[in-house]
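Our preliminary data section would be incomplete without showing what the modeling component actually yields. Below, a chain of 185 amino acids is followed by its predicted structure, encoded as tokens that our downstream tools consume directly.
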Amino acid sequence: MILSRVSAAVCPQFSAAQLSSLPKRPSNPYIHYVSANFPLVKSKHPPNTPGKDIMKSLGQAWSTLPAGSKTIYQQKALVETKKYDKFFKTASLQLLFEAEDKKEKKYMMKKFEELGRLPKRPPISGYALFISRQKGNTKLTAPENMKLFAQKYQKLSQLEKTRLVDEVGVMKGAYENRMQQLLNP
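Predicted structure:
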């Protein structure tokens, strides 16, 4: 994981030893279940059974597992998630500059946004802003709702569309200013 390659200078609140053991993305309860039960299930299968078949057995066993038995794995996942969130609540935003992998950088930005450490990114257009404010009909499918929203947008006057575009411009300016304040204190 890219976070394990971050230098101590970027995260002064963490020692070099802590940086080498940065938390990985938290696993979901199913992954904890598989980790705990894979050797047992594998031993019940013939020696050269493909991993795919073993995973299929584990998936079926997980889906039939009572809710009470899943609690152990849910608790493990919750503890992992809290530890991971705690790291991102205290980590330096400079991590974003150190990330070499675009996918990892995007994930870190999303995580910082979720935790309120970064402002939410503004919509990319007036149309996107309009769509984000619409309430869909629960009786319709997502594509049907999108079609209705597009029809509503087409019926807007040019003045209303211009107002949406201007509002997005203001939102983008505020976002960029806030990002500059956060990243260049």
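The chain is about 65% helix and 0% strand. The mean pLDDT is 83. Preliminary results of this kind motivate Aim 1 of the renewal.
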